[in-house]
Amino acid sequence: MVSSSKGATPPIEVGNAADWRRLEPTKLTPILSASLDAFYEHGFHGTSVRDIARRVGVTVPALYYHHENKEAVLLALLELSTSDVLERAHAASADGGDDPVQRLANVIEAIVLRMTMRSRLAALESEVRYLSPENRQRYRTVRKGVEELVLEIVKEGKKRELFDVADAAETTRALLGMCQSIPRWYHAEGKLTPDAVARKYVEIAMKTVGSTELPVKPKKRRTADV
Q: Which one Pfam family would you cite for this protein (predicted)?
């Protein structure tokens, strides 16, 4: 198995997920920050370890002290990304109380805000194909947590006749699929703000599940990521 780190790399911070609408600037180690930029600009396959080391200003052996290889760097970033969205999704769901409509609206909003405000991290999902089978499964295990959460909400809404869906599992995959496609088209310099995209996607989600009720309108985000 590829280890994501070997030395005393400082902990990675992504902010307080409990306040799920608040996205603080992502704090990465210099190596992970440089790797994220390189992967975003050139893709995993087009980025060399030497390129990452040059961006950081360290030697290749120094980089290998912290991460076993390039795949380990990618895995560290992917695990950060998926853990972040999972924590935020659970916090958003809890904020919706016992109401499946509000819970689903919150979770979709949380996912979309994270996809737009942390688009570089979110875009890394396209590089998962370069992980070894073992590490790909490790990544998917965390990602599966988001799917299970949304599925549980959709099933509960259907049970209480708040949602009108024929297949809860397929509906869940459709909801998450539309959210995961956002990094392919969203640009921070575009006309749509993260809040505007979140509102639109919550509306689409409610129509997709055939909601008979409307959620409370989203509150305005307080802090933007950079």
A: TetR_C_24
Q: Could you tell me the CA-to-CA distances from 169 to 97, 118, 157 in Å, in that order?
A: 22, 27, 13
Give pTM, 2 decimals. 0.83
157 — phi, psi (to 5°)?
-65, -40
Q: Are 100 and 27 in contact (CB under 8 A)?
A: no
pLDDT in tens, 76-113: 999 888 888 999 999 999 999 999 999 999 999 999 99
| DSSP secondary structure, 60-124, as one string | HHHHHHH-SSHHHHHHHHHHHHHHHHHHHHHHHHHHTTT-HHHHHHHHHHHHHHHHHHTHHHHHG
Residue 163 shares a structural domain with residue 131: yes
Q: Which stretch of DSSP H or E encloses residue 22?
A: none
**Count of structural domains, the chain:** 2
CATH code of the domain covering residue 158: 1.10.357.10
Identify whether 222 is part of a domain.
no
Structural domain contains residue 77: yes
The boundaries of the domain holding residue 179 are: 71-208
Write the pLDDT tens digit of every residue in 99-158: 999 999 999 999 999 999 988 888 888 898 899 999 888 888 888 999 999 999 999 999
